[in-house]
């Protein structure tokens, strides 16, 4: 956690006849642990709280100890100086009024003055400070911990969560980070699942792309692992949806910490500290092309979008998707079906059916659908996609009007009786342990855009969908 100063009081030495040997033995074990944890300054004090030895007054029974008392160490502690060089201000809000626009935040380290040239990250836009506004009125300058509003000239594109520095400083903006993560949720970490990363006033979708190792907190050993359970600590690689200006925790406690929040439950599932800003994330930029989604869709005289069919195996998703595509084809609408089974024979061939692999299955499918929408197509996705968080991650890739989530709600008894692929029979024999609805949970959609009764005739459900699309 970046802690560099630790005070350890070894109590009840009176019960051990104030033995120096006992104290030295315990202190030696503590030193080994503190070295492993890279704690640079550890103060170990022998004391007896019952008798008051070395708490406030130096002990007469432990004349072999010549160090400070507990109260002396506490009162003599000096907070570590700010490690980052120069001024930092993270934008907490955009202040607007008539003929006024400013960015509000708290100064961390250094100082800032009217007329200073600054830079806004991650965009690297530059501007000058034309005004510094506080509750006490306009200021000529401000120092660390001051809550202020800056008026910029010109009014550059700056948003909540961006970081302001002096113009001659540089921060590596990236969407890839190596971090130490403490998992807090009862449900384990799921690779490729989209969470919300919150750091200060920054809030952005992010996912854990790689778990490098899990840490044994007792021995410090780095263990191979595929996930993190509750209270476990691991070294992970994290990818965010767009570039951020985070700093290593060793340089800045303010700009190097974050939490992960579950998109479905809004519960905090992990706390993390940035260890390294991975520069490969800053070496990739979006390439703009003159022909875009609007032009491609205009050529086809249609509106692109995604109809995401979710439901149990055997609920009727593929049957509905097939008939719907036929109707759209007859109407001259360029469409394409992304079927879960078909994708698992190609792009998702390497994936199984664990929770982590299902999350990756949804992620890849949604990215393919996004490309097809960008090509101007109307995409029909027929995928079990059993978890709410993964479905919401898929939705987040599209503009609000482009994505329609449809729950094909069919009782599991009906799905079992249909069993077009024989999967339920295999699951009953124990051949498919992760069968959705039996061995693995299906989370009913919380806010679907449309619910279809999977027991109704296919033609009736397709007619309902056509009314939504056209």
UniProtKB/TrEMBL annotation:
GTP-binding listed as a keyword: yes
EC code(s) of this entry: 2.7.1.25
Residue ranges occupied by any APS kinase domain in the UniProt entry: 305-453
Species lineage: unclassified sequences, metagenomes, ecological metagenomes
The keyword GTP-binding is annotated on this UniProt entry: yes
All copies of domain GTP-eEF1A C-terminal, residue ranges: 179-275
Name of the protein: adenylyl-sulfate kinase
Gene3D superfamilies for this protein: P-loop containing nucleotide triphosphate hydrolases, Translation factors
Organism, as annotated: freshwater metagenome
């Amino acid at each position: 956690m970046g802690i560099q100063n630790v005070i350890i009081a070894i109590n009840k030495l009176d019960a051990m006849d104030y033995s120096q040997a006992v104290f030295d033995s315990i202190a030696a074990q503590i030193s080994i642990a503190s070295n492993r944890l890279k704690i640079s300054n550890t103060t170990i004090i022998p004391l007896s709280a019952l008798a008051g030895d070395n708490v406030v007054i130096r002990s007469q029974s432990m004349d072999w100890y010549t160090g400070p008392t507990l109260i002396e160490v506490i009162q003599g502690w000096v907070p570590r100086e700010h490690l980052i060089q120069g001024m930092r201000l993270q934008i907490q809000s955009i202040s607007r009024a008539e003929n006024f626009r400013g960015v509000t935040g708290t100064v961390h380290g250094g100082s800032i003055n009217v007329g200073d040239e600054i830079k806004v990250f991650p965009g690297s836009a530059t501007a000058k400070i034309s005004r510094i506004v506080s509750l006490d009125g306009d200021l000529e300058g401000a120092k660390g911990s001051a809550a202020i509003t800056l008026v910029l000239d010109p009014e550059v594109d700056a948003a909540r969560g961006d970081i302001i520095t002096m113009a001659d400083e540089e921060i590596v903006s990236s969407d890839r980070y190596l971090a130490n993560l403490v998992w807090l949720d009862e449900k384990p970490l799921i690779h490729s699942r989209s969470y919300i990363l919150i750091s200060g006033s920054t809030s952005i979708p992010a996912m854990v792309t790689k778990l490098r190792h899990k840490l044994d907190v007792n021995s410090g050993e780095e263990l191979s692992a595929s996930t993190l359970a509750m209270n476990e600590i691991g070294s992970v690689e994290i990818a965010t949806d767009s570039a951020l200006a985070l700093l290593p925790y060793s340089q800045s406690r303010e700009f190097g910490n974050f939490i992960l929040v579950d998109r479905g439950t809004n519960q905090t599932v992990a706390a993390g500290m940035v260890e390294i800003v991975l520069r490969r994330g800053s070496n990739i930029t979006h390439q703009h092309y003159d022909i875009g989604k609007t032009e491609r869709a205009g050529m086809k005289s249609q509106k692109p979008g995604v109809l995401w069919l979710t439901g149990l195996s055997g609920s009727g998703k593929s049957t509905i998707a097939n008939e719907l595509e036929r109707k759209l084809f007859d109407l001259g609408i360029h469409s394409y079906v992304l079927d879960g089974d078909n994708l698992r024979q190609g792009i998702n061939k390497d994936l199984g059916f664990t929770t982590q692999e299902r999350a990756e299955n949804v992620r890849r499918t949604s990215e393919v659908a996004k490309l097809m929408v960008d090509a101007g197509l109307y995409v029909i996705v027929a995928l079990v996609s059993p978890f709410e968080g993964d479905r919401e991650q898929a939705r987040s890739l599209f503009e609000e009007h482009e994505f329609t989530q449809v729950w094909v709600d069919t009782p599991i008894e009906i799905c079992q009786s249909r069993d077009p692929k024989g999967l339920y029979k295999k699951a009953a024999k124990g051949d498919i342990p992760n069968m959705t609805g039996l061995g693995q949970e299906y989370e009913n959609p919380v806010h679907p855009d449309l619910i279809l009764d999977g027991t109704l005739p296919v033609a009736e459900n397709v007619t309902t969908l056509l009314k939504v699309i056209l």
